[in-house]
Amino acid sequence: MSSATSQTPHIPDDFIVDVHDLAAIILDAHARTEPLFPHAQLVEINHGDAPLTTFPEQFFHSSWHESAVLARKRVAYVLQTDSAAQERVTVDSFAGPEGVKTAAGPRELNRRGLEDVYWRCKDYNNGYLLAYVAQRVFDSLPSTAKLRARTSTKHEVLCKPSEVAVAEIDIRPKEACLILVKEPRPDLGPSKVDMAQHLSGFSDSVPWVFLLLGEATSTDMEADSRVVFDLVLPQIGGRGGGSEPFALERAIVYHEKVLAKVADEFERYDLSGKIRIAEEDIRRPGKALVALVLDRIARIAVGQDHFCRYCGKDGVETRCSKCKKAFFCSSCQALGWKYHKVWCE
């Protein structure tokens, strides 16, 4: 007696991958697998100089108190994790059950506010990982497939999967961010906790990586038609031009209107054909993410995966009432409309 096994359908040779959709799918897969904050919920937000109530300031990393940092914008987030939890925290369950403390007292954040913190945590130190994943996905597509990059300003590039370059620059985020994660340890005592601290934007410069899609049409950035694909912009407090938790914008728009809001750029601008990752802690999860994403693309290609065009979640049934083609979660429709209305057909 033989048993049938389900196989992932192949990606058609002439398939067109919408890069905006791909970004949502990559981030959805990343959120389902990232190991640093899987069970962490947000309990406090602090902007500026007001003291956090969860921890005394003497517990904070010494960089938090440096004069250069004190003179800049600062933000701190306190998360509480439950390592015994079975379910991963999602955007919908990210706020602590007792509300999020702020300088004005506990309050309920709107969806956009929760997303900003959620993705800042999920993106933490993952720029090279997610750029590597995107590049590996492109490399795995049939050579005759196409990438379609549509921006929030109605600029479109259609290119081969091989027409992708890696850009590495140095930036200085305009906001210093401290993420504190506490975990209660009742086994050690009623008030004992483990605490981890994660900092970004404290040094003079931060290495930043993104992909450039399309064939170079000019050495002048203003005339170059290529599109920047940046999957971790929320790590430094940014969003794409369509309010997405990533950026897909023409290069000149990305540098002058999107990235410039949240970071200053230095002169380094290195272009290469590939990201060469030696670290096993990036390559191993990267390969696993690539497999998940390629499976999703293959199912989308044959109509087996209805996904939210904003967050990438699969199994979504609500369609755009105008075009009847795009699917959205009920909680994502309003957030996704700023971009979708540009291309809604």
Quick description:
By secondary structure, the chain is α+β, with helices and mostly antiparallel strands. It has helices at residues 19-33, 67-70, 111-122, 127-140, 251-258, 280-301, 333-343; strands at 16-18, 40-47, 73-81, 146-150, 156-159, 164-173, 175-184, 193-200, 206-213, 227-230, 247-250, 263-272.
Structure description:
Residues 308-344 form the MYND-type domain. Keywords: Metal-binding, Zinc, Zinc-finger. InterPro entries: Znf_MYND. It is built from seven helices and twelve strands. It starts with 15 loop residues before the first strand and ends with a helix. Helix 1 (19-33) packs across helix 6 and helix 4 crosses helix 6 (280-301). Strands 11-10-9-6-12 form a five-stranded antiparallel sheet. A four-stranded mixed sheet has the order 2-3-7-8, with helices on one face. With 345 residues, the chain is α+β, with helices and mostly antiparallel strands. The protein folds into two domains: 17-272, no CATH class; 306-345, no CATH class. A hairpin with an 8-residue loop joins strand 7 and strand 8.
